[in-house]
Amino acid sequence: MKKIIALALAVMMAVCVFAGCSAKSEKLTMATNAEFPPFEYLENGEIVGADVDIAKAIAEKLGRELEITNIDFDAALTGAATGKYDMAVAGITANDERKKNMNFSVDYYTASQAIIVLADSAISGVADLEGKTISCQEGTTGEQYLLDNEYTVQSFKTGAEAVTALTSGKVDAVVIDDAVARALSAEQNGKTKVLDEALTQEAYAIALKKGDDKLTAEIDKALGELKADGTLAKIFEKFELPYDAE
Ligand code: ARG
User: How far is the CA of 126 from the centre of ligand 1 (A)?
Assistant: First the structure.
């Protein structure tokens, strides 16, 4: 009889341990657009990049299992805003327009829009862009900048397609986030170059559903810790992203 009770207790304890484990690993769902190297891109079919490493580190701190979905950039933004996903991590610029519809974490990276041109182009700065046709990624702050300044714009689903429009002679320049401009231009084997001039000042943050203040606070806390202990600096270094730890 004693043996049976002992066995029953052992089984119950084991069940508790397992139940405890599965309760802890509640999913943390993330939307991204893996067309944005080195923040998120596909490598042998796997979604990798600085944002992915940051999201993994946050999920670990929250004790939740990260689940990443790769979709169009505008869909990732909408998906976070509507709460279809817990968050969107996609080199997203936290600007006032977007803050009307969604929550944002604290900033984790500083960026700007940059210009890519053909290596032998006569365009050497924003002053030379007048009257030119410029490509960009749809739904981005780069696109918004071009529309606001009344350029002739060709928008593409991905930055890579925007660059192909340049190398195939369909547009005169590409406008896209600076680090991504460098990464995409580096893939062109010297056919293109990135101009030094920064067109905007932007800050990346994680987007969440408007009013999801609990998760936003949890993510802010995690980001604060990852910044303080040097994890963020290490991740940016791994992806050769310039970073001022300040
Ligand atoms: N920073 C820009 C924006 O927020 C571009 C982001 C594009 N991100 C991406 N994963 N494709 O609009």
Answer: 21
CATH 3.40.190.10 occupies which residues in the chain?
19-110+203-238, 113-194
Regarding the beta carbon of 41 and ligand 1, being less than 6 Å apart is answered no
User: Taking Cα atoms as reference points, which of 53, 46, 59 lies closest to residue 241?
Assistant: 53
Give the whole-angstrom CA distance, residue 75 versus residue 197: 30
Write down the CATH number for the domain with range 113-194. 3.40.190.10
Q: Is the CB of 155 under 6 A from ligand 1?
A: no
- What value does the CA radius of gyration of the chain take, rounded to a whole number of Å? 22
In tens, the pLDDT along 65-94 reads: 999 999 999 999 999 999 999 999 999 999
The closest alpha carbon to 161, from 135, 191, 194, belongs to 135
Alpha-carbon distance of 187 to 167, in angstroms, equals 12
DSSP output for 155-219: EESSHHHHHHHHHTTS-SEEEEEHHHHHHHHHTTTTSEEE-S-----EEE--EEETT-HHHHHHH
Closest CA to 142 of 187, 129, 79: 129
d(CA 152, CA 130): 9
Instruction: Name residue 111's beta-bridge partners.
Output: 202
Q: Which CATH architecture is the domain 19-110+203-238 placed in?
A: 3-Layer(aba) Sandwich (3.40)
For residue 98, the ligand 1 atom closest to its alpha carbon is 4
Q: What is the pTM of this model?
A: 0.90
